[in-house]
Design a protein that fits this description.
The protein has 268 residues and is α/β, with parallel strands linked by helices. 39% of the residues lie in helices and 21% in strands. It has helices spanning 16-26, 46-58, 99-105, 122-125, 128-135, 150-166, 187-202, 206-215, 223-236, 250-253; strands at 2-3, 38-41, 65-71, 80-82, 87-88, 95-97, 112-113, 139-145, 173-178, 183-185, 241-248, 259-267. A hairpin with a 6-residue loop joins strand 5 (87-88) and strand 6. Helix 6 (150-166) packs across helix 9 (223-236) and helix 7 runs antiparallel to helix 8.
């Protein structure tokens, strides 16, 4: 089963040479990739958020297994949908699904093997060419996530973490949460609210993160993926985090009246 690249040519270039050229232009200078347990990446069009994603992935040491979670923009499929098997197409080459791990993760009542949520969802697809460029050979478990509460996030995190341990791939794995930040607020409001929320994310405090999102009514699309990732990282004993870069769409289009925010964060 092959999941076609459905938003190539719109969210990102459809040709490998153009993607590689974009990435090379945005690779930061003078750094050493670091060990990481998790990363948070934006998923807008490359013209807006691609630079943040490139810089974040470039600073992360490659792993063999990526559990990559994105929000559900389409409303299709199960609430927590795990793509079951096969490969995902990218212009830089296909990426194999970690089939056995996907099956292990869905041996419960919360996560389901499902393709419907994935067919036209861009939040995972957009990040894969960048990950493919830097990490080369790896397998993925793509999970599309709907909004829930902290108790559901904790339970899903426990399921994923225990599956990684039982399959003996925990230390070979990276948790990737896909999310943009505030949508369509002024630059001033977006940056203030986003930095308020990012502070809680950097502190690996899921409850405070969710509280701040609600308090400021932040239109962050990946609340569920980030919430689950934070809970996995706590179970895993992550202690450190660093904000690689925060920016908004205004950096590109100079429209400060209505922006979208983007953040890249590394956890270890």
């Amino acid at each position: 089963m092959k999941r076609k690249a459905t938003v190539k040519g719109s969210f990102y270039p459809g040709e490998s040479s153009l993607i590689e050229g974009f990435i090379k232009e945005n690779i930061p200078q003078g750094f050493q990739p670091q060990e990481a347990k998790g990363i948070m990446l934006p998923h807008a069009g490359y013209i807006y958020s691609g630079g943040v994603a490139v810089e974040t992935v470039a600073k992360t040491k490659p792993k063999e297994i990526l559990v990559i979670m994105g929000p559900n923009h389409t409303g299709k499929g199960a609430s927590f949908s795990v793509y079951p098997e096969g490969v995902w197409e990218t212009p830089l080459g296909d990426i194999e699904i970690a089939k056995e791990l996907a099956q292990k993760i869905t041996e419960n009542n919360l996560l389901r093997l499902d393709t419907q949520a994935h067919f036209y969802e861009h939040s995972i697809e957009v990040e894969l060419p960048i990950l493919k460029y830097f990490f080369k050979n790896f397998k993925i478990v793509p999970i599309v996530c709907s909004l829930a509460n902290i108790f559901v996030y904790k339970e899903i995190a426990k399921i994923i973490y225990q599956a990684l341990r039982k399959e003996k791939v925990l230390e070979k794995s990276l948790i990737v949460a896909s999310s943009d930040m505030t949508h369509y607020q002024s630059q001033k409001i977006a940056s203030q609210n986003d930095k308020f929320v990012i502070e809680a994310i950097l502190n690996l405090d899921t409850a405070e993160f969710l509280k701040r999102v609600k308090e400021k009514d932040v239109s962050m699309c990946g609340v569920a993926p980030v919430g689950i990732m934070l809970e996995i990282l706590q179970l895993w004993g992550a202690k450190n985090s660093s904000l690689v870069r925060y920016t908004t769409s205004a950096e590109r289009n100079r429209d400060y009246s209505s922006v979208v925010g983007y953040a890249g964060i590394i956890f270890n």
